[in-house]
Design brief:
With about 210 residues, this protein is α/β, with parallel strands linked by helices. The chain has a single domain, classed as Formyl transferase, N-terminal domain (Rossmann fold). It has helices at about 15-25, 45-55, 55-60, 75-85, 100-105, 125-135, 170-190; strands at about 5-10, 35, 65-70, 90-95, 110-115, 140-145, 155-160, 205, 210. The strands form two sheets. It has a seven-stranded mixed sheet with strand order 3-2-1-4-5-6-7, with helices on one face. Strand 1 (about 5-10), helix 1 (about 15-25) and strand 2 (about 35) form a beta-alpha-beta unit.
């Protein structure tokens, strides 16, 4: 892609989500819109007021990026907003509910989800915690198309983290996965014009290898 794509980033206030935003900013590709799930649409000024009552590091990280809120009951309204603004992509990094197809279809190029595991392993709301509890020796990140089932969309890219001399703790694993995931997303944007080749998850063996 020759011009910088316009994209909205959907995320909650988790540490992994914050690290994804930070990594994208460091790569020089911040989102055009940050979307949080809890409250009705609000301006950045309102978001700052919310932060005072309920600390949210995303508001501090956002800088001058516009913040909006899209509760589950307002997905149709949110889809209309994205369509009117002509966003190219949607990127999801920790979102608490299924994204309706109308939202997926509202962007012109694609809706993607960053999941911090080598899918199809460790689906679910806390893949990082599950991997730490299991003593996973090969954690990684998957970038997949948003589908109408949690964490089951076709894989666009995935990569394992490099081996470490000592085990990851929660904080270091979140940071490493976010940095790796941001690179996968940026590479996917660069490769869009050449044609994406997503792979169904049933064709991927444990550990991220192809059947």
């Amino acid at each position: 892609m020759t011009a910088s794509p316009r994209y909205a980033l959907l995320l909650n206030g988790s540490n992994f989500a914050c690290e994804v935003l930070r990594a994208l900013q460091q790569h020089g590709l911040p989102p055009n819109l940050l979307v949080l799930p809890e409250y009705p649409p609000a301006s950045l000024k309102t978001a700052a007021l919310i932060e005072e009552a309920r600390p949210n590091p995303l508001a501090r990280l956002a800088g001058d990026i516009e913040i909006a809120y899209a509760p589950r009951s307002q997905q149709a309204r949110f889809a209309q907003r994205l369509r009117q603004a002509k966003f190219d992509f949607l990127l999801v990094a920790c979102w608490p509910y299924l994204i309706e197809q109308s939202v997926v279809d509202s962007v012109t190029r694609g809706a993607l989800n960053l999941h911090p595991s080598l899918l199809p392993e460790y689906r679910g709301p806390d893949p990082l915690g599950e991997q730490l509890a299991a003593g996973e020796t090969r954690p990684g990140v998957s970038l997949h198309l948003v589908s109408q089932a949690f964490d089951e969309g076709d894989i666009l890219a995935q990569s394992a983290l490099p081996p470490q001399p000592k085990p990851y703790d929660r904080s270091s694993l979140e940071r490493a996965c976010a940095r790796l995931g941001s690179r996968l997303f940026i590479e996917a944007l660069k490769g869009y014009d050449s044609g994406w080749r997503p792979i169904p998850q049933e064709q991927i063996l444990p550990g991220g290898t192809m059947r």
